[in-house]
Amino acid sequence: NAWLLGNQQINVFQPKLQISLKDKVELEEDLHRAIEQDELDVYFQPKVNASGQILGAEALVRWQHPVRGLVSPIEFIPLAEETGLINKIGYRVIKLVCQCLENWNTKNIQLPVAVNLSARQFLNPSLLKEIWSNLNAHSVMPDLFELEVTESLLLENLDAALPVLNSFHQDGIKVSIDDFGTGYSSLAYLKTLPLSTLKIDRSFIKDLPQQTDDCAIVEAIAFIAKALKLQVVAEGVETIDQLKFLSTIGITVFQGYYFYKPMPVLEFERLLIAQSQSKSAIKEITCREN
Ligand code: C2E
Ligand code: MG
Ligand code: MG
Ligand code: MG
């Protein structure tokens, strides 16, 4: 790092930078071990309707580090992407999700789960084959297995992304655009790519309904999505006022701390079972009444 003092350039020793490089090397070594020793896990965050009924879930990777504790994907996904370790991590996540889907199926619970993909995973030619080998091994229908990719991923690799999206589309695997609205200003691509859902980025939801610019942006996104027959999910819903505003402009699917935080699989399963029991209880009551 260089500072300019008058005309003189002075190189400044930055202990902080050194620590972060050391951290990075350590983190990379740790990540190799994490993959080998099975320290990676997935949490599930429900996607719900306005009354809180669970419609699906997003799988979010977690790293249970023996010393650091739970490490956030924000801390290790970029490094994993840089080093290529992301592919192994991604395959692990895909496998864990398929195991869960298989297990829920035996309990007669069918719920779509979305897996996040980074650019390096998405453009890896083995991805589709790897997904199918897991779907087949666990008897999972492709319509329960969804993907989330960011807008910037698609647009920075548009030529390469299109055939990949087409093959997912052909195979019945839905793809959502994650963090929608933060990537590019061009909307033209929406009409050409086979996509199922726009996930409105949390940054637009955060200050609703006080921030009138954000209200206008979110309303415009909802309008475009409807016109293009895309589903919409509002990410990062934290308050009742946000939920009320989003509902009045016609958004019906939500994800956020107001409803649920991401949770370990056992907790999520308890929730699913409780919900499916209350649903069948409601069904029983209506049957008796008829
Ligand atoms: P994302 O896909 O946009 O996931 C949403 C993130 O927002 C999650 O953070 C979730 O915990 C958080 N979130 C959800 N609702 C709320 C809310 O109401 N308020 C706030 N403040 N936050 C909320 P998380 O789990 O830390 O994941 C961060 C990012 O890491 C994800 O963003 C995704 O881009 C990436 N990621 C997570 N799992 C994977 C994975 O398996 N593979 C890849 N390639 N990336 C992953
Ligand atoms: Mg996501
Ligand atoms: Mg997102
Ligand atoms: Mg995000």
Task: Look at the helices and sheets and give the structural class.
Answer: alpha/beta
Q: DSSP helix count?
A: 12
Q: What string, H for helix and E for strand, traces the elements in order? A: EEHEEEHHEHHEHHEHEHHEHEH
Q: What portion of the residues fall into strands of 2 or more residues?
A: 15-25%
Based on CA atoms alone, the radius of gyration comes out at: 21 Å
Secondary structure: helix percent: 40-55%
* Basic shape: globular
Bound molecules: ligand C2E, magnesium ion
| Distance from first to last alpha carbon | 76 Å
Uncertain runs are 1-17
Quick description:
A hairpin with a 5-residue loop joins β3 and β4. It contains 12 helices and 11 strands.
Describe the 3D structure:
Residues 24-276 form the EAL domain. This is EAL domain-containing protein. It comes from Catenovulum sediminis. The structure is a single chain. By secondary structure, the chain is of the alpha/beta class. 50% of the residues lie in helices and 20% in strands. The protein is built from twelve helices and eleven strands. The strands form two sheets. Strands 3, 4, 5, 6, 7, 8, 9, 10 and 11 form a nine-stranded mixed β-sheet that branches. A two-stranded antiparallel sheet has the order 1-2. Strand 8, helix 8 (189-192) and strand 9 (197-200) form a beta-alpha-beta unit. The radius of gyration is 21 Å and the shape is globular. The termini are far apart. Residues 1-17 have low confidence and may be disordered. The protein binds ligand C2E and magnesium ion (3 copies). Ligand C2E binds at residues 45, 60-61, 72-74, 77, 90, 93, 116-118, 121, 148, 178-179, 202, 236-238, 255-257, 262.
